[in-house]
Amino acid sequence: MLCGIDEAGRGPIAGPLVVAGAILLEDIKGLNDSKVLSEKKREKLYEEIIEKSKYHIVFSNADLIDEKGISYCLKNSILEIMENLNEFCKEFLMDGNTSFGISTLQHKIKADATIKEVSAASILAKVSRDRFMNEISSKYPNYDFEKHKGYGTKAHIEAIKKFGRSDIHRVSFKLKALGEENIGVQKSLF
């Protein structure tokens, strides 16, 4: 059996990074890269994936991303998934072009669109993150997180200009629109 792994939230300027792993126990129709599915279709598939798979989902909050770096958070999330699901399978495949220095992790570009287990992980990660951003949006009404999910849209940048960053914004992600520059070297996981 194969465990597919994918992430959601690598690029946003607010909110968590979410990494999911999924081992399918039954066939599921309609799986694809979460980014090409409608929200309604993702939600429906999410419930089916939960029912028909072994899975593990890991959240890394903005503070951890700022402290340790996004690569560190990705690698540790993958290792946690592997540890939690290794009794069910021995083969792990991550969407993308790197194995993050993990010798037992395979990787493939566009696996989220071509390998059903990775598609399932993509959907679990995206829906979990979107639900989280929707839930917290009422706590942060100035930012409209339910609309842009923490990505750097024009409206989101304007809200930061007006209200500053909240405690779920990633301060290590510098914004050119605010005149910020990346200073120093990005943290490496190797």
From TrEMBL:
One biological process term in Gene Ontology: DNA replication, removal of RNA primer
Q: What does this protein do?
A: Endonuclease that specifically degrades the RNA of RNA-DNA hybrids.
Residues reported to bind a divalent metal cation: 6-7, 95
Which reaction is the catalytic activity of this chain? Answer: Endonucleolytic cleavage to 5'-phosphomonoester
Subcellular location(s) per record:
Cytoplasm
Instruction: Say which species the protein is native to.
Output: Arcobacter ellisii
The cross-references to HAMAP family, in alphabetical order and at most eight, read: RNase_HII_B
Q: Which GO terms describe its cellular component?
A: cytoplasm; ribonuclease H2 complex
Q: Please name the GO terms that the record assigns under molecular function.
A: manganese ion binding; RNA binding; RNA-DNA hybrid ribonuclease activity
Q: How is the cofactor bound?
A: Manganese or magnesium. Binds 1 divalent metal ion per monomer in the absence of substrate. May bind a second metal ion after substrate binding.
Main enzyme class = hydrolase
* PROSITE patterns (alphabetical): RNASE_H_2
Q: What is this protein called?
A: Ribonuclease HII
